[in-house]
Design brief:
It contains 14 helices and three strands. The chain is mostly helical. Strands 1-3-2 form a three-stranded mixed β-sheet. α5 crosses α10. The chain is globular and about 40 Å long. It starts with a helix and ends in a 13-residue tail after the last helix. The protein binds zinc ion (ZN). The site of zinc ion (ZN) has 6 residues, from α5 and α9.
Length: 278
């Protein structure tokens, strides 16, 4: 297994070098390519919700938020993964996946918007790209080449997918998470949406986590998004600084959200083996 992994890594590194990618500097074009290739792999591995009403709603909400950020120029794409596991993740270049478990727990539009704005901010700040740029040597080659080529699509190179996957889904630091919350908070306000949903959704997840423990569907969120309790405090602080009159003018919920939500609740059960954002 070990020598096979090295062989795949060596091959992948060669491809990355041939593509002219270095560890210190991923251009926006490369970032977009990376996300698209990784997304193609994910879509072979994860079941997606194929419901036009749900997908169009999530895309519209995501674009409403993303179009007000400094990276409005990206071709943002939003998908719903058909799993009860509560999680969401973003790929480089503006591809965001929201798990069905998030839609199931969001009771209002502003709660879903808070989660999406958080993921959008990870892309705005290029958190995964920065992590890759900081990685050393072969790992960068494997991660980038896996994503930019078909090298990982065969069984022999399966080990390299793990390496690539680790790079793309590397856990963000607490600093990254705090930044994504703070940026996400402003992203929702800029989109005309009430940021209170960010707070109430996190509180809801925390309550669920405390009730069901690490075996619950919400635990995935906490392992990927460290320090949730501190972050709730941060969001409360930010909220206290928004004038009440401004908060009142921001949208908390819409008919379109509730229509979408009813569709979600009427879907057949999600497949059990579906993975989290790992
Ligand atoms: Zn995050």
């Amino acid at each position: 297994m070990q020598h096979r992994r090295e062989a795949a890594g060596f091959l992948a590194l060669g491809v990355a070098v041939a593509l002219g990618i270095s560890a210190c500097g991923v251009s926006q074009q490369q970032e977009v390519q990376l996300g698209q290739q990784e997304s193609a792999q994910i879509q072979q591995q994860l079941p997606l919700v194929q419901d036009a009403v749900i997908n169009q709603y999530v895309s519209a909400l995501g674009n409403q938020i993303a179009s007000k950020t400094s990276r409005a120029d990206l071709q943002w794409q939003f998908y719903v993964v058909n799993t009860d596991v509560v999680n969401a993740f973003a790929l480089p270049g503006g591809i965001v996946y929201v798990n069905r478990g998030v839609l199931e727990r969001a009771d209002r539009m502003d709660e879903l918007a808070g989660v999406m704005a958080h993921e959008i901010e990870h892309v705005v700040r290029r958190h995964s790209v920065k992590q890759m740029e900081q990685m050393q040597g072969a790992n960068v080659g494997v991660a980038l080449a896996c994503s930019l080529t078909n090298v990982c699509n065969n069984q022999a190179a399966a080990a390299a997918i793990n390496v690539g996957g680790t790079a793309i889904f590397a856990k963000f630091s607490r600093t990254d998470e705090v930044q994504a919350d703070e940026g996400g908070f402003h992203n929702v306000i800029n989109a005309g949406i009430n940021p209170e949903g960010m707070l109430t959704f996190f509180q809801k997840l925390l309550a669920e986590e405390q009730q069901s423990g690490s075996s619950g569907a919400a635990s995935s969120w906490f392992s990927d998004h460290p320090g949730t309790q501190d972050r709730i405090q941060d969001i409360q602080n930010m909220l206290s600084q928004v004038p009440a009159s401004q908060l009142q003018s921001l949208t908390k919920d819409t008919q379109a959200f509730q229509t979408m939500k009813r569709r979600v609740m009427s879907l057949p059960p999600a497949p059990k083996q579906a993975a989290s954002g790992q």
